[in-house]
Amino acid sequence: MNTEIIDNPSVMLQNVAAHIPADKYIAEYRDSERFMGYCRQCRRYGKTYACPPFDFDVDDYISGYRDVYIIGTKIVFDDLTRESSATVKLRDEITNNAMFHVLDEMAVLHKRVLAVFPDTLSFLVGKCRLCLPQPCARLEGKPCLHPDEVRHSIESVGFDVGKTTSDLLGIELKWSNNHRLPDYVTLVTAFFTNAEQSEFCELLKQMFGCNVVLKE
């Protein structure tokens, strides 16, 4: 596990990485019908190109890869920050500010990995922000303005994030209690690849500062 401080001293990051064969991950951790149902209830459904419904076959999109690498990033808040969260609005501001910072960092790291292994499929998490401050072109029926950069989340293609974090990363998802911040928030990103395993694991160690736990 890697522990590092970002530019906010009240927030600490902990990265955990795991590997699992792609066929096993798809067979045991994917329930597309169930998670598409959740996506349909989301206000972003059909409103950004990062979210379903997609204009491609998801089964084909995730097929043809040998290995999956999961990165779990825990955003850990210190006691003072959690105690300062007196309202739901303040809780959301603190959480969103921390998440946006980390997601920007994750996007950069994923780009660096793809520069070395360009045939790798990358999954990020959270709201797509490539077009901000303008809205997504999808709202106007126009093609995606960043088709080579847009990233989907693993849940948007049907994977169970809760099972992924608990089984593969040893992380229990935490949720807020009314206005109080949880002890930590977990972001899950992933790579599907056919790259040589030792080389890919070494790169992830360099990028994310943690060893990859191999799950067979």
Q: Quick one: how many beta strands?
A: 6
Structural class: alpha+beta
The average pLDDT is 89
- As a whole number of angstroms, the C-alpha radius of gyration is 17 Å
Would you list the SSEs in sequence order as H and E? EEHHHEHHEHEHE
Task: Tell me the helix content.
Answer: 25-40%
How many strands, which pairing sense, and closed or not: the largest β-sheet?
Answer: 6 strands, mixed
Stretches with pLDDT under 50, minimum 5 residues: 1-7
Q: What proportion of the residues form beta strands (DSSP E)? A: 15-25%
Count of discrete alpha- or pi-helical segments spanning 4 or more residues? 7
Q: How would you describe the shape?
A: globular
- Cα-to-Cα separation, first versus last residue: 19 Å
Describe the model.
- By secondary structure, the protein is α+β, with helices and mostly antiparallel strands.
- It has 7 helices and 6 strands, in the order ββαααβααβαβαβ.
- Strand 1 and strand 2 (11-21) form a beta hairpin.
- Residues 1-7 have low confidence and may be disordered.
SSE layout and pairings?
Layout lengths: L1 E4 L5 E11 H8 L2 H9 L17 H5 L4 E11 L1 H6 L3 H29 L4 E3 L37 H9 L14 E10 L3 H12 L3 E3 L2
Parallel strand pairs: 2-6
Antiparallel strand pairs: 1-2, 2-3, 3-5, 4-5
